[in-house]
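During the second half of the funding period, the structural biology subgroup turned its attention to how the target accommodates small molecules. The most pressing case was zinc ion, which had performed well in the primary screen but for which no bound structure existed. We therefore specified the complex as follows and requested a full 3D prediction, including the ligand pose.
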Amino acid sequence: MSHRRALVLGALAASLCLPSTAFGLDEVNSKKLRDAVTVNGILQHERALQAVANANGGTRASGTPGYEASLQYVKQRLVKAGYRVKEQEFTFPFFRELAPATAAQLSPTPKDYTVDTFEYSGSGDVTANVQAVRGITIPPPAVPGTTPAGCTAADFTGFTAGNIALIQRGTCDFGLKARNAKAAGAVGVIIFNEGQEGRTGLPAGTLGEPIDIPVVGMTFADGAAIYQQLQGGATVKLHITTSTEADLDATTKNLIADTKTGNADETVVVGGHLDSVVEGPGINDNGSGTSAILEIAEAMSEQKIKPRRAVRFAFWGAEESGLLGSEHYVTTLPADDLTKIYANLNFDMVGSPNYARFVYDGDGSDSEPAGPPGSGEIESVFTKYFAGQGLASEPTEFSGRSDYGPFIAVGIPAGGLFTGAEGIKTAEQATKYGGTAGVAFDPCYHQACDTINNLSTNALNEMGDAAAHATLVLAKSKSGLFPDGSRKAARDKSKAKKFGSDHAR
Ligand SMILES: [Zn+2]
């Protein structure tokens, strides 16, 4: 008896049993769809997005004409493919750097630093003494993302108002650190990278919302050197400048496209962000996810696939500004409609030039947090698929750095794929996936060089097919993610478990 048949039989047997065991997604043959989802088809969309960026100052960031043109490109293709398409407009605090940030030590050791401007940093030209906050850890802790510096007001005990705050990247958001510094009277903030492998360069990131003092990122080496000077008792005077523009009420949009058939009470949201960073065209981040999703949507329409569950293709705006589009979508959806969202698939960066095959760790086997009930099943759809293709894959954490975040935050099961960003490929990964060890998965992450030349066609091919497979499984599978088929029961059950008897009281 062949493996495949065995599996099918297993699932069949399960579905024939009492309903309580009839869950766990059954096998769906996605070959026909995968054959229609081609690298050339994905690249066609990628080239269109590159052309859009070329015609709009090299960016497709939300709040710029490049984003609107990207949206209209995707929209006209989806309308042509017969989807019910709508634009969802929302406001967000737009940010643009007008001139590169600068930083220099004036005394005791004159030195110029290479720094970058945090998104939503204010404009400023400040000269002041620099003061380290509590919690800086040098050498850095073994585990990335665990340094607590600047995360609480207490870390600023003894901070002199009018100084520049020196803070290390770590556990909490950049924005929280900067706001705590401002509250303590800082006239400027330097956040230097944490120091572990892959976290030594300039820490690019967002503060989440505008702040009216300059906040710049610095390499670990430079930040640590200043810290050592201060530890040595030196008074260090710095001059930092930033020049930025922020529009608190800029408008941008999500694009939502629904299948005309399928059970709308069990809607599967297949999404990825459409915007790029201001600094570049975002052809891998996230032109690759956008193009793969669009290609899948067109192929499903061409093949007249009738989904059992409604499929909603979503192209989020302002992800690079802090998941603002998906956040807006989830938080403004009426409660009743929210319960109809069955699951979320997220595809953000699936074409990294030095790629790995990452699957979001739905069951939390290798990282915390696990996803909501059902996420483990979604993870296994991907891992089983890759295994069936003889392709290695590995789990990646729900780090909250992409648009599945707002969905899992409200208990909606999620999953998806990722091929790596600024992380460094290990020798073991190079053996598994090819490519180069010791080099970032995407050396052009969030930079101007994230162009059409910054893609792996192997990655697009393998991840495009896996995304098509998972989309079809969730859309067509007879049995579902939950024992009684509904997310509500699973949610109530997990709530009951979490709160135990107190909840009962
Ligand atoms: Zn992205």
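Two results from this model are relevant to the next phase. The longest strand covers residues 84-107. Confidence is low (pLDDT under 50) at residues 4-21, 498-505.
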